[in-house]
UniProtKB/TrEMBL annotation:
Annotated protein name in UniProt: Odorant receptor
InterPro entries, alphabetized: 7tm6_olfct_rcpt (IPR004117)
GO cellular component: plasma membrane
Family indicated by similarity: Belongs to the insect chemoreceptor superfamily. Heteromeric odorant receptor channel (TC 1.A.69) family.
Organism lineage: Eukaryota, Metazoa, Ecdysozoa, Arthropoda, Hexapoda
Cellular location(s): Cell membrane
Any Pfam family: 7tm_6
TM region(s), chain numbering: 56-77, 83-103, 149-167, 187-220, 259-280, 292-312
Length: 383
């Protein structure tokens, strides 16, 4: 029996090491994305994050994108075709959103690295050693989902949007002084840069979000095991360790909320106009597949953030419920006091907030969608 237990332990440690190796490889890719956002692509001088030449290059590039798209919006004001007006406005708002998000992420690059390092350290942290099975299972699931979504976005989004604009003869990013065929080449480059920037920024947020939800699931799995005497005996873990882990998770959740508060604000402010523009284009041209694709991108981007906010809220709410459902009445007085402190900490669920005021959850998504429907109806009523 001890031999079987040792073999099982070795297999668990091997699986955890494989999971940690996979996470490290993925972590390096995320670091590369952050380096691109912060213009720090040089390995010889990694501290030169805000190198003047790189900052100037990125500023000029995105300045050209904003000016090109803004010029397109101004030129389309006198055109009666509402398709060009709606598409131009949609991409102008989207371009501004991308620029703001990039600068918001670049300002917090070091803090994001620290949070990613903390997530990676859970694989090797001695205080989490008795939770190897939970860590390996949950992190493997999180890594799988993140990779699938990012790969799908990178393959489909830029190529699909550029091809659609070329086939429909739609010029969203004009460049004065260039022939029309060369302007489409510039537009393919511009759309590629904008969409890749959106995917990079959202990938950083989404990656950390998936792993934070995974950590919450790990903690909930351990709470469910508190009623198992064999688990408590084999793990040699008392409730004070649970309290420290709970406190550590809540601190990191607040750090995550502060890091991405600016990103959530701009997402909240721009999502409603983008959804309105998407509805408007579908209502004008219901036969065009491109309208549905653009709308799916606009609403999907906001929905992913709201779903993550809902997950965080529900998981932190579940902590209190699961603690209450333990056999606390069979615990010692000391453990009951620690459990009571944990329940007091968990009695108010944690919610992601934009600007520290507006909660990001599925209720916010439904309200934004309803408002977009109403505004779109008003636009057609006064048309």
């Amino acid at each position: 029996m001890p031999l079987l237990w040792k073999k099982s332990q070795r297999s668990t440690e091997g699986a955890l090491f494989t999971c940690y190796s996979n996470y490290q490889q993925f972590q390096r890719k995320i670091y590369l994305l952050i380096q691109i956002l912060t213009c720090n692509v040089s390995h010889s001088n990694p501290n030169a994050i805000y190198s003047l030449s790189r900052r100037f290059l990125v500023t000029v590039l995105f300045g050209l994108l904003v000016m090109s798209n803004g010029l397109n919006v101004l030129l389309k004001l006198d055109i009666e075709d509402l398709w060009f007006k709606a598409a131009g406005l949609l991409f102008f708002i989207g371009t501004l959103q991308v620029v703001y998000k990039m600068f918001a992420i670049s300002r917090s690059a070091e803090e994001i690295r620290d949070l990613l390092e903390w997530i990676g350290d859970l694989h090797t942290n001695p205080s989490w050693a008795h939770l190897k099975n939970f860590v390996e299972t949950r992190f493997r699931e999180s890594l799988l989902y993140v990779k699938r979504i990012i790969i799908l976005s990178l393959i489909v989004t830029p190529q699909g949007m550029s091809l659609n604009m070329f086939l429909s003869d739609t010029l969203i990013y004009p460049m004065p002084g260039l022939p029309r065929d060369q302007q489409f080449i510039w537009q393919i480059f511009a759309v590629f840069i904008v969409t890749i920037s959106v995917i990079v920024v959202d990938s950083v947020f989404m990656t950390m979000g998936f792993f934070i939800v995974g950590i919450l699931n790990i903690f909930l799995d351990t709470i469910a095991k508190l009623n198992s005497k064999e688990f408590v005996r084999s793990s040699k873990c008392n409730l004070q360790d649970y309290y420290q882990k709970h406190l550590e998770i809540m601190v990191k959740l607040r750090d995550f909320d502060e890091l991405f508060s600016a990103l959530l604000v701009i997402q909240l402010l721009t999502s409603c106009p983008l959804i309105v523009a998407g509805f408007f284009m579908i209502r004008l041209y219901p036969q065009m597949i491109a309208c549905y694709l653009v709308y799916a991108v606009c609403i999907g981007q906001y929905m992913l953030i709201c779903i993550f906010g809902e997950f965080v809220h529900s998981k932190t709410e579940q902590i209190f419920r699961d603690l209450y459902l333990t056999k606390w009445y069979k615990m010692s007085i000391k453990d009951q006091m620690v459990l009571l402190m944990m329940m007091k900490m968990a009695i108010k669920p944690f919610s992601l907030k934009a600007a520290g005021m507006y909660e990001i959850n599925m209720k916010a998504f439904v309200e934004a969608t309803k408002l977009a429907f109403s505004l779109c109806a008003l636009l057609f009523a006064f048309d």
